[in-house]
Amino acid sequence: MTDARAVETAIADAHRREWARVLAATVRVARDLDLAEECVQEAYASAMRMWVSAGIPDNPAAWLTTTAKRRAIDAIRRDTALRSRLPLLVEPETADEVPIGDATEEAEDRCAIVPDERLRLIFTCCHPALAQEAQVALTLRLLCGVPTADIARAFLVAEPAMAARITRAKRKISTTRIPYRVPAAADLPERLRSVLAVVHLLFTTGYTAPSGPSLVRADLVDRAMHLARMLRELMPDDTEVRGLHALLLVTDARRATRVGADGRLARLKEQDRSRWDRAALAHAHDLIVGCLRAAPPGRYVLQAAIASLYAQAPSFDQTDWPQIVALYDRLLEVWPSPVVALNRAVPLAMVAGPEAALAEIEKLKQDGRLSGYQYLHAVEADLLSRAGRITEAADAYRQAFDLAANEAERAFLAEQIADHHATPA
Predict the structure, then answer these.
(1) Taking phi first (over 0 means left), then psi (-120 to 50 degrees means alpha), and beta for anything else, what does residue 273 get?
(2) Do the Cβ atoms of 114 and 120 come closer than 8 Å?
(3) Which of 193, 290, 294, 417 is the most buried (most CB within 10 A)?
(4) What is the pTM (predicted TM-score) of this model?
(5) Fold of 1-88
């Protein structure tokens, strides 16, 4: 017998680290996302029962994969038997569907196009028959294990709305009989935009976890970094692929300095720049320069250029604020997002003063799309504090605190609330 707590810990670790890999392997057998997800869930449930009596296997991922595949094969056999008994009640397979367990030379060639199994499955799930947001949300939930609530925060919608969106996407796959098929090389470009969005959101969800006890979920960050490298190997000439990789390199270079030894969140101006990964920053800089020379910059190249300017400055106060504002202006042209407009307010305050930035914040509040976004209130609070409007700053920090679900951020915001209530107006 194995201690139940040890089994729970092993299963939680396997879920966090191996869910996507187990699901990817199972989908190749099931050729159906819903069936594969169900079989993988059953495999994890079986592990909870069997590992207590039989012991935790040396390779939990292999055990889970084998169990899930067997369940998928059993389900397929039951379905095949039912179809043979009730041929008039079941729709015939369409000619363009890939048979279950297809191992044709064409199928093998398609798998060879995208050698990395996780990346291959992301391309497969980003099917153009689904809306892009549905592609990204479904992929993050099924393949990356990101909770629905965290996906909802990333898309600035309520959790029930996001849950319904994911359910509709799965239903459409089922009702329209979208087959599991690894895309051909010619199909990759039309899916790339969604794949880039998946990798970027996976990284940001890990780099600043929307909820939980830790500021960073290293497993998600590392997975996103791996996928970005695989994308560069697959499509080395695409500037947005290189731009995304550069953006992740620049951002991740600061990971070790974002939380102090006491566990307190450290703002950019407080971080020890001597501890930043200079090799990663140099690599990213070379990628960015090459992208800017090759073609008009897209969203990821511009984001990478902004992040690089922040990182290149000898100190926070010596940052090239006017250049950053100019880059944000260009970014808003190619990606007119309210979050981009909010981020632009930070360097704008350094150029034109906090009151000018607060005027932009007021426009975003009137717009309404960021009403439930904690960082709108956090940025406003900082600007109000710098403008000497202490009571208003405390109120804005309270609004941010009420919306925050990450414990490290909540602790930081609580400090700011206490400091501003202690400061005379």
Answers:
(1) alpha
(2) yes
(3) 417
(4) 0.85
(5) Rna Polymerase Sigma Factor; Chain: A (1.10.1740)
Q: pLDDT per residue over 59-90, tens digit each?
A: 999 999 999 999 999 998 887 776 665 544 44
Choose among 283, 289, 308: nearest CA to 239. 289
Q: With H, G, I as helix, E, B as strand and everything else as coil, classify residue 295.
A: coil
Q: Can you name the CATH fold of 352-425?
A: 1.25.40
User: Cβ distance 130 to 138 under 8 Å?
Assistant: yes
Nearest-angstrom CA–CA distance, 27 and 6: 29
Q: Which residue has the tokens 């592609």?
A: 135
Closest CA to 161 of 391, 153, 306: 153
Residues 145, 146, 149: CA angle, nearest 5 degrees: 140
Mean pLDDT of all residues in 292-299: 94
Q: Write down the pLDDT at residue 83.
A: 63
Domain ranges of the chain: 1-88, 236-341, 352-425
